[in-house]
Amino acid sequence: MVSPMVKTFGVVSLVTAAMIYAIYLGYFDSVQTELGRQFYAERYSAKWRKILPPWLNMPYNTFVNFGYVILGAFYCAKTSVALERKQIQASDSYLFYSFNIMSTFYGAIQALRILTQFHRAAVMDQWYTLPFFMWVYIWSCHLDSGIGLKGMTFWTALSLLSYLLTLIHTHGFEIALAFHIAVAVYGAITIYRKFPIEEAQGPFVWALICCVGFVVLKLVDLELPKVNQIFEKISGHFLSKIADIFQIYFVNKYFEILTEHKHSIENKKKK
Hints:
The chain is mostly helical.
């Protein structure tokens, strides 16, 4: 019997491959992306130049992406343990696995963009960001009243198709991202109202703070070196990725707490 993690890995891989293929066919070649070192504050220091190859000219912004992979792998392992101990159900595990397998893929995609500065890698980086936020809403619906395969497919497809805005508007990605963030926050608040437990407040607030940090730090990346030269090494872009990794961690923690709480209530009713 195929395990839930293997099934989920197959589905996420298939969707990711379809996205890559669509980009390969050139459907998004007209999308505007930021390419080149001029869009990043990080500077290649003499220290790194002696150690690293010339093509690895933004080491901090490259290596930070391992954080996504490590965190995703950690939560996949944690989900497997929780499933084995029957702390969560198989339907819950699909949500955890999907979110964290996406995290591992996202780390690789972002590293590829930093290293190559290819337009199509930048498109994939942008596009892959959107399902992350939509998954928070899907997760909330699952805990609320169940969403089912059709519901998951609909909202995921809507999320992916929203990237088509980039073909009709210069700021199409920003519009789509703002919509996704709003939907994610709405979903998280809605499910908290159903299960208003104090333990979940901290992860929710920290996830929100990290989300703001993820957006703002990236926007001010080129401005921060004017404040202090340290931001030419520990750049705003690098710090935004740190905030993003912690955002993924706190989202996991939030839904972990709510999932366990929901099952606790259900088990008490059965007794």
